[in-house]
Amino acid sequence: MADAPKKLHIKTYGCQMNVYDSERMAEAMGGEGYVLTDDVAEADMVLLNTCHIREKAAEKVYSDLGRLRPFKEAKPDLKIGVAGCVAQAEGEEIQRRMPLVDLVVGSQNYHRLPAMVKAVDAGEKPVDTEFPAEDKFDHLPQRPVSARPTAFLTVQEGCDKFCAFCVVPYTRGSEISRPVSKVLSEAQKLVDKGVREITLLGQNVNGYHGEGPDGDWGLGRLVRELARIEGLERIRYTTSHPNDMDDDLIAAHGEEPKLMPYLHLPVQSGSDRILKAMNRKHSAEAYIRLIEKIRAARPDMMLSGDFIVGFPGETDQDFEDTLALIREVRYGAAFSFKYSARPGTPAADRPPVEAAIADQRLQALQALVTEQQRAAQLAMVGREVSVLFEKPGRLPGQWVGKSDYLQAVHVAGEGIGPGSLRRVRITASAPNSLAGELTAG
Ligand code: 5AD
Ligand code: SF4
To answer: Which of 100, 213, 404, 430 is most solvent-facing, going by the fewest CB within 10 Å?
Structure first.
């Protein structure tokens, strides 16, 4: 009788980049006979793919590791691995703090995971957080058949911007873009497997400068080339920095119908003083002018952003400037965070804003953003949009998909299935989703 397949449980924290990486790790371990399980209790191996961006995210990893202790006691050969940005940042320290951890693998070394698992079998406790010379993507197995109509595709990694609060330049290293040919062939393979929407990923994705057949290509050119792939209907990208939003990419938003009218463009603060202290290298005014230019190219562009409140030195006036910027831009969605001091970053040693004040500011900012998000959702009612359907909804006959603007849309109708792209009239809005009906066309 053949051995039963071994079971791997992966928990993913943080950004979409980690979601992509978890899939690649699952494939690498698939080659070793592991299948995925959602149930920790039946797992032979548990991998935590971690996030180091804020203190809470990093501490969560340690509390989750603590929760794995009874499972390890019940099944001593259970393998426990820590991957991702906490692994990258803390390396061996993780095993010192949590001896039950068998292996620690940094974000550039997933292709070495199978070898590391063998080392664990041999009684070792491997840690690999080097930035290797080889490209991990070249050493990972082919992506298997995807049942989903949407996929992420990493085109760029790392960041050279060094915002004063951020660990990414340290955990993910300097900016590297994958060559155009590799991106195009991976995209073509995804489309051949039924993917109709691709989200290009990178910590600084619009800083993409991949090697092309005739010199380096920017993201605008890459998007235009991807758009020529027959069967690929939608292209998105995330996350972007305002200073890398070049004219060609902005023009592509006006010219390329497959490029979706939704842009995540974090600004972090609306105060020039704080932007300077954050080392963002742009003013609030420059950001607003940039948004105007993008909306001139694509008037229906939906914007989302990230904001940090309580950055060291932030005064009431600085915070008011942030609210003023939000009022001027009008976001469809926004993510806001209380500043969290990260060891090793330039801002970590600066005197913090009082926690209660930061809490108040976070609440005020979130109230404003929620109001804008509601308004944006309500403004959709009566409009016709295209919806790419992904999965069945909760009600019988109902399907859920995403609008061009990345809003969840619920529709009941004939002939819908995963991957159907249909025209829908929006009939009702809720804070986090829309309802609609198929149009005749
Ligand atoms: N504290 C709070 N928020 C942070 N972010 C990044 N670093 C920190 C930090 N130290 C936020 C930024 C970024 C998002 C991914 O996380 O807003 O855009
Ligand atoms: Fe972090 Fe700034 Fe780089 Fe974004 S641009 S990853 S916030 S350092």
So the answer is: 213
